[in-house]
Amino acid sequence: MKKILAIGSGPLLEKGVRKIGGHCLRTWHFVSPLLEDGHWVSLVTLPIPDHSRPPESFREHVEKRKYEGFAYQSVLKEDPAFLKSFFAEEMKRLRPDCIVGINTHPAAVAARSASILPFWADLNGWAMAEGQTRARLDGSDTYLPYFWADERDACRRADRFSTVSKNQKLALIGELAAMGRMNRFTFDYPFADVVENAVNPLFAGEPDPGQPLLVRGTRTPQDAFIILWSGGFNTWTNVNLLYEGLARAMEKDEKVYFASTGGSIDGHDEKTYAEFHRLLAASPFRKRFILLGWIKAEELFPLYCECDAGLNVDAMNYETMFGARNRITNMLAAGLPVLTTLGTEISRTVETERLGLAFPMDDPDLMAGAILDLAQNRVLCREMSVASRRYALENYSNSGTTQPLRDWVRNPKLAPDNQEKVIRYPSTDDLLSVWTNDIEKTHALLGDRDALSLVNDSRDLWIIRSNPLFKLYKSLKGVFKKK
């Protein structure tokens, strides 16, 4: 049994919680198998980063919470100074055998706190692709440094990594090369494993026939074909295609309805959902779009059971190429065949395994056609429903997907180049500050300083050295040294 400090995103999917993203699901995905394996896990969750709020607007305390009988701590103040002191105390108190950082931001916080302990970093989605979509949405690159700082520190410090897709693993290896981590010590070292999103247990149960209905028969006809969207409307959502495809299907079949949970993502993307509302405002079908907003966790699975199919619509960008979709995984587990744009790796699994129907990211007519194929062929829909649930439960379990992490935790070790740093610098307690090669040296010395500050420092130094008084001082200093 190992003692593990896990740092993830929260809150977990507790009763009454409304706003929860894939990062929060990912935390329990990683923690629960470690508990089942008999390890002692101390979990600390951080809020999803919200750069629109100043640090002082957060309360300065830690809240104790409980999920499925498991007690954990939830940090409510996202402030670097507070986190540094808090985790320093946690390290002294717990004396863990290793650290597991779950999702990129918690992994970066863990990287700055890990000392010389073995450290696993789960980079759930490629931060730089997400940063690029945010920059496009805002029309500004202001937040790119925030995304890069997290990605950089996690890459520089972690001993093992997990990514959410095969494509992201390749992007990570490129970043590791740029950080100097692909060196002579790590030539044959398995840095990274792919840990696909798992089914959250909430969506793997059996429907309760006595559960009150949220939409079917109340806000839709009893025999409606209800298509479900669940979760945030993020920067990579193609809302124009989403609306047009649905509207064209609704025009041809009056039984097609759309229900959505979720909405805008505070501090990250509050524009995409607003744009969807704008499109609906002028729609002749707006009464068939049922927008439920962020509903309670315990209402999610019953709603899934009321619907006939799930929906995922992405835009063409690098996040789609490198990312994954929790909504697809959990819809499949709930027995919903998925209608999805072709882009993410899991969308291609949906297509090849016939777990739903896929369509291009730029053709609303083909999207409408896919919707109508399922809406007008209920036998096909039921067949795909059975196949979807079976495939998800067999391939996306918490324990099965995290097998590489479970194996590593049994005997956690530093990466070979980090072990070399411990040998070379026996007095260090911060592996981010030392190096084994010149590429790493540059990053270690640069730290959080940007290139512009270095240019300014160099200019200031040149001005000082060019001053006649400084030159006189240097000359006199040389004379006196000779004497």
List keywords for this structure.
single chain, Rossmann fold, 6-stranded parallel β-sheet, 20 helices, globular
Write the layout of secondary structure elements.
Layout: E1 3-9, H1 22-36, E2 40-46, E3 62-67, E4 70-75, H2 80-94, E5 98-102, H3 104-111, E6 119-123, H4 127-138, H5 144-157, E7 160-163, H6 166-178, E8 192-194, E9 225-229, H7 239-252, E10 256-261, H8 272-281, E11 289-293, H9 297-306, E12 309-312, H10 318-322, H11 326-333, E13 338-341, H12 345-352, E14 356-359, H13 364-375, H14 378-395, H15 398-401, H16 403-410, H17 416-424, H18 438-446, H19 451-466, H20 468-482
Parallel strand pairs: 1-2, 1-5, 2-4, 5-6, 6-7, 7-8, 9-10, 9-12, 10-11, 12-13, 13-14
Antiparallel strand pairs: 3-4
Helix pairs in contact: 3-5, 4-5, 7-13, 11-14
Can you walk through the features of this model?
- This protein has helices at residues 22-36, 80-94, 104-111, 127-138, 144-157, 166-178, 239-252, 272-281, 297-306, 318-322, 326-333, 345-352, 364-375, 378-395, 398-401, 403-410, 416-424, 438-446, 451-466, 468-482; strands at 3-9, 40-46, 62-67, 70-75, 98-102, 119-123, 160-163, 192-194, 225-229, 256-261, 289-293, 309-312, 338-341, 356-359.
- The chain folds into three domains: 3-198 and 400-443, Rossmann fold (3-Layer(aba) Sandwich); 203-396, Rossmann fold (3-Layer(aba) Sandwich); 450-482.
- The model has no long low-confidence stretch (mean pLDDT 91).
- The strands form two sheets. It has an eight-stranded mixed β-sheet, sandwiched between helices.
- The protein is an alpha/beta fold and 483 residues long.
- Helix 4 runs antiparallel to helix 5 and helix 7 crosses helix 13 (364-375).
- The protein is built from 20 helices and 14 strands.
